[in-house]
Each structure stands twice: as C-alpha cells, then as structure tokens.
Amino acid sequence: MTDFLNKLLSWYQSNARDFPFRQTTDPYLIWLSEVIMQQTRIEQGVPYYNSFVKVFPTVHDLAGASEEEVLKQWQGLGYYTRARNLHATANEIVEKYGGRFPENYENLRELKGVGDYTAAAIASVCFGQPHPVMDGNVIRFITRHFGITDAVDLAAAKKEIMEVLDELMENVQVLWEVSSATELLRPTIGLLPKSGKPLTSSLPRLTLTEASPSGDPAAVPDATEPSHNPFHPGLFNQAMIEFGATYCVPRNPNCRECIFNESCYALKYGMVDKLPLKKQQQALKSRYFHYLVISVRGKKGIYFRKRTENDIWKGLYEFPLIETSKPVTLPRLLNSIEWKQHFGKTPLKILSQTGSASHLLSHQKISATFYRLEIEKPSDKFGSLIHPKNIHELPVARIIEKYLETHQTSEL
User: How far is Cα 27 from Cα 125, in angstroms, rounded to an integer?
Assistant: First the structure.
C-alpha cells in the first residue's frame, strides 16, 4: 500500500489541475465546490462555482438569500433539490452553529443534503480527518486496479471498495502523523511539480494565515500541517479523484504509460473496458410536456407559473403546462379535457407551434412542444404575466431557458 500511495501522491503533486477550491481549506468553499462539482464535469463547474462565491461569498450570504435567488444561480446545473438543500443547510449552519461548520464527519453527515461523500471531503480536506471519499472516478480507479468484479451499484461491491479505501487511508494517516512529527518526509525530486509549476498552485494550502472570505479569522479551520507534506487525508482523497478523472478515464485510458500498469488487475486480465461492472440500467421514463406560451393582446409579457409539486424542477418557473402520457397532435390536444380545463370558453388565438425539444434527466426523458397563444383578457389562472425585461430574473429549467434563447423575450 505504501508503494501505491507514494506513486499516487507523487503523481498528484506533479499533475494536479489548478482550481480555486484547491487553494483553500475553508469548509464553506469546499462544501460549495463538492456540491456543485457533483452536478457536472469539473471544468464546466468552475464558472458556476466562481459565480456562486461571487454572489454568496459567505455562508451567511447564502443563508440570507431567497430560495429563488439561489435557484437562479444554480440554473443550468440541474437536480434542483441540491440547490434547495444547499440553501437549507446554510440556514442550519448559521442558526445552529453560528456560521461555523461542524468539525467532525458525524456532525457534518447530519446536515441536510450532506451525504457520505461530501461529509468525507469536508472532514478530510478541512480538518485532516481520515475519511475516504467514493465517487465515480474513485470507484473506476479502485475496481480496475484492485480487481473488484461485482456490480458496483450493489451493496457488496461498495463495501469491498470502501474496505480498500479505508486501508489506504489508514496508511495515509500513519505516514502523515509520522512525517508531521519527525519532519523527515520532505518533497524529493520525484515529488516536486513539473518545471515552471509552483507547488502551491497544485495543492490545497494546509496552513492558512488569512481570514476566511467572511472576514472572520475564527471561521478558518486550524491547519498546522506543513503544506509540503503530501500524506494529508484531504490530498489523498483529491489525488484519487484526480487520477480517475484525468488518467483512469472511462474509455480508452492510456494504460501503456500509466504509473500503475504493473500492478493493475484490469490491465493484466484484459478487463479495462469491462470494469467497473454495473447491473442493467433502469429504463428511461418518457414524459410529454405541452407548454402554453400565453400572452395577452395589447400587453407585453407572457405567463409563468411556479412548480410547487414534489416533482422535477420544484421551485422553478415555467409556462402553463399540459402533460400527456404519449405524444399527441394539436387537434387531439385541443379536444383534451386538460385543454378545456385550462381555457374553457376563453377566446384565444394560436400563433405558432414549435417542434418537440428533448431533455434528458437521470431517469427521465422530457419531450416538450411549445404553443404560442394569445388571449383577449388577462387571467390569474394562467399564473403571473411577466414583462420581457424581468423574465431573465426567473429561475427556469434548461429546457425553458433554451426556448427563451431561441425566441427573444422582446418578441414574446
């Protein structure tokens, strides 16, 4: 295990990508980065992270925001339950802990929306606690290298993966404590970054002297470990994720030049393209949305309604909607009970129909058709009539955002 760790952490120091959240151990910033990066590829998530930190630089700012403001900043990331949990957790941290994050894994795990992965990331990076993280990148790396051939979405395989990670983390903890106590483990030529790349640009700062973004020095966790010590639990976790994300990739990894090619089970037995093994994926559920883009003759704006039911996109705004169990033509839609419930004898004019647009979620496929309609008089039953200049302030799902991008709000 020591040889594995030496190779991994040496590789990380020389190859880690430089991201803003790798330059801090502030638990608020680490928490934000972990939640956001779970939604998207890290390169795509960095702009969201930067924007979020700019608008909500401290946990107090996030807690004091409205849910709509949070959802608007989250727009485009999907899975909006996480954004709502983020907001709720910020309020919990402010109200219950005075704005300071709990400093142990168990209390972090009790926070709303904070699972094993996020709690382990905060505990290890910010507080040096030996809790391994397990995401898709880590699972892929571990199953290939150590030869775990059970389906990874089953409990038995997850337990086996965590046992390997726990053993690795135990070794990290021992090496960290020894090196911190004796100061014998210093960077060697093999541990130094590539030429021209400063060490601090690729590793989290483990010794902080500045105040946190909130301006409160007390909010910065104590970190007395020397920044050059590679055997830090947080660095181990980040190295595992980084290697899986950039080297032990899902398809066509460069095994010939991999630093673990002599010890990798999957490479030895020709299973690189087969691991990690997964059981049959759940079939996608198809849903058919018919959006009614309603305006009022002689008035600027279109109607929006807020989704309040316990379904996808809760808390976001959308056009009035009719959902059907299968694709339907416009004549059939006009004769449906749902259409009559919406409009009854309300005079209206159908201006246009936009062809079906698709949007994939984790277990659902949304097929949406948009109908531009004009009614004679305003009606509260369709929601709120939003002026074009204010539409951009509403948090909306990506499928609505795409429609608005295609059809300029000034024309609506």
Answer: 8
Contacts of 203 (CB under 8 A, 6+ apart): 13, 16, 22, 227, 235
> CB under 8 Å, gap of 24 or more: what pairs does 346-353 form?
346/375, 346/376, 346/379, 347/375, 347/376, 348/294, 348/373, 348/374, 348/375, 348/376, 349/373, 349/374, 349/375
43 labelled catalytic:
no
* Minimum mean pLDDT range among 41-50, 186-195, 346-355: 186-195
Q: H-type helices in 271-392, by residue range?
A: 330-334, 337-343
Query: What is this structure's pTM?
Result: 0.72
Residue 83 has pLDDT above 80, yes or no: yes
Q: How far apart are CA 98 and CA 203, in angstroms?
A: 29
Number of domain units in the chain:
2
Core vs surface per residue 85-116: b (16+ CB within 10 A) or e: bbbbbbbbbbeeeebbbbbebeebbebebbee
Last residue of a domain, one of 268, 303, 320: 268
Average pLDDT over residues 367-392: 93
Residue 206 in contact with residue 230, Cβ under 8 Å?
no
Convert the pLDDT of each residue in 139-165 to its tens digit. 999 999 999 998 898 888 999 999 999
| Residue 219 falls inside a structural domain | no
Both 305 and 239 in one domain: the answer is no
- Domain housing 298: 285-411
